[in-house]
Amino acid sequence: MEKLKEILTQSPLRPIIHVDDDPVTLKLVNVSYQKSNLKNPYLPFQLAKNCLEHMKKVKLGTELMPALMLIDINMPEMDGFEMITKLKQDPFFKCVPICKMLTSSDLQEDKDMAKKLGVDSYLIKPNTPKGYVELFNSWSKS
Description:
globular; alpha/beta; five-stranded parallel beta sheet; Rossmann fold; 44% helix
């Protein structure tokens, strides 16, 4: 937790990337994020492939390395596990600072796969905006 707090407060503030195919979830998380104590830019992506395109810009140095990546599992075209696998195939991204699965799946096989892929933690999506705000605030220094 301390490592995350340190990364989130480095200057310049690095973004928090969130990948989820559900536009309602992205909007809910964005609104909740704005109410939290975190000041990092919030970058939502509805498709894993769009996030991977963004990460190419990170590698080129035109975008900042994210402080944190929140990735859903169940997405069309490319699921969260495939996205993490593709990202970590590139040695440049083997050390993305913090990568968390943020999903509605409580299946043990999904938790095991996330661990196998080197995900830092596996989080079940909160049920309420307040739950998201509390989650984000748990990562802040305040």
